TrEMBL record:
PROSITE patterns: OMPR_PHOB. It comes from Micromonospora vinacea. SUPFAM superfamilies: C-terminal effector domain of the bipartite response regulators (SSF46894). InterPro entries: OmpR/PhoB-type_DNA-bd, Sig_transdc_resp-reg_C-effctor, WalR-like, WH-like_DNA-bd_sf. Residues 60-155 bind DNA. Residues 60-155 form the OmpR/PhoB-type domain. The keyword Transcription applies. This is DNA-binding response OmpR family regulator. Keywords: DNA-binding, Phosphoprotein, Transcription, Transcription regulation, Two-component regulatory system. GO terms for molecular function: DNA binding.
Amino acid sequence: MLTVTLSIPLACEESLTPAARRLLEAAREMLERGEGVIIGSVPAERRPDQAPAGRSPARPISPTIPALHILASSRSVLRDEEPLPLTRLEFDLLLHLVAHPRRVFTRLQLLNAVWGYEHAGVRTVDVHVRRLRGKVGVDVPLVTTVYGVGYRLADDARVTIDRTG
């Protein structure tokens, strides 16, 4: 058994260094797989819901994160039961990421899997991710950027797929 104590300031997760971000992701994955245990509690002065003096939290904590529901057979997406107009490529990109929830994809891998070719510039993926995030809304965690690598589905994304007719 190995015991590890982490002290990572989470007031603004976006400001973490790439190494700290990778360490945090690895710890989250271990906990999700049941390979790790949290013992004890976070001291009151270090709780993530409290921002340091003079700073606001990076993302306000919302009691309900809007849910996305993908209807695969009709190629449509509902955001809290309201239709979300997506292009063919935006839909395919979303479906691919949701089908592989913990996997990080490089831009080139996404070009192959979603577009079906590598001939377009890899920045094409960035544009489509940005448009997808914009259409879904900033209040819905959806696609996480893994700096220096590519993209993956966000940990707290609430997305379901209906593959039935």
